[in-house]
Amino acid sequence: MxxxxxxxxxxxxxxxxxxxPALILAMLSFSVVQTAVVPILPSLAKELSVSGSSxxxxxxxxxxxxxxxxxxxxxxxxxxxxxxxLLISLTGLVxxxxxxxxxxxFTWLVVARVLQGAGGGVLPLAISIVRDELPKQKVxxxxxxxxxxxxVGSGLGLVATGLLLEHWSYKSIFWMGLVFGLIAVALVALxxxxxxxxxxxxxxxxxxxxxxxxxxxxxxxAVSQGNNWGWTSTRTLGxxxxxxxxxxxxxxxxxxxKHPLVDMKMMSRPAVAFTNLAGLLIGFGMYGSFMVIxxxxxxxxxLTHYGFTATVLHAGVMLLxxxxxxxxxAPLGALLIARRGPRLPLVLGGVLGAVAMAYLALRHSHEGxxxxxxxxxxxxxxxxxxxxxxxxxxxxxxxQSGIANGMNAVLRTVGGAIGTAVMAAIxxxxxxxxxxxxxxxxxxxxxxxxxxxxxxxVVAGAVPFMIRTIKPGATVTAAxxxxxxGSSPALAKTDA
Length: 496
Description:
single chain; mainly alpha; 21 helices; 77% helix; 0% strand
């Protein structure tokens, strides 16, 4: 393992200005593309002449692809270089967007969403590049900005979808992804230098990769389709059983092989394990809450006596404060991490998320309530996202940064799939009796969904207290200390 020489002050500034914007745009490209189709799934079902249960595969396929490819691309980045894998990840996003633009077939659109899922590799790879390329005093801020961009992009994607549909067809959404992706590819190719650090002593683990893909696929399909198939159906229970068995086999393989895809000792460290649990819970809260708030805003008030009869654009604008909140959270989170360590922003993230959801459970009759809760929630999500990589980077060596952050991103995705499924089950479990053939949830169903989201965020805010405190500044210099510390047990010096 080798490390680049320490740059001069002028070179440090130039590196930050060149590299970080390219990485942030790459992260925004994926998060916008991933969430942009959420508000238009019902209209897409009519446009493509498929059932409401089938159209959900446009989200399931994307989540599944991202969950499987994110850790693989992260690990290959550790082994073969982060920039090449980042370009491959973005190329998948571009190829998927181009296919989506060119087809009118539902089947090929699902394939396109699978290809777009390759963009999930951007998060761990970009974080690893920041550790490699930015001066140590800028690493925390850079990582926080990239991680918080996931929340920013999700909020912007919802607004952009509504805005585009006001003037053009659903194809314009995929054109947006294509343009974003092409710009990101160009910037990464031109501005991101060749990696100074790679895990040259590592090796491939094809059996570990196959079994990881197997249990993630079974789990995500079961969770995503459980509402349509029935949670006690043979297909759903069978897939859960397959996921459990294959996950056990995967764990055994990773412990036995010489060069595992995922180092289980690394994953079991408290700073990594509990941060991944927090990622699962925060993913649950973010994706689930976005879906519930969007549906609530679009509910026809004349029929239900609640909601705002909002268009897709109007509902997206109501969620725009969440993107602004996440944007504000990036520098704030970096400042808190530098001064107090990552615990405070992660705790605040969970608390603010809970406050926002509890507020909506109690107050939801005015549009201002949605705007207020959205802003608070976005700030909380941004703080949590900025803190999680700081915990992980302080606990793992540089050559495992990609796979460690990749697994955290996977668990956020899994949490999002679970959150969306649970919220959908709550809303469909208590519906209004209307004189027309339309199924709409009761107001109590929405209140229950908000309270569930608040409870999950509370637990996410409590998780950091299970992790030993990382000293302020330790996470900033972790990448540079690792080269001198050598073996991972020495990382105990960071209290991780």
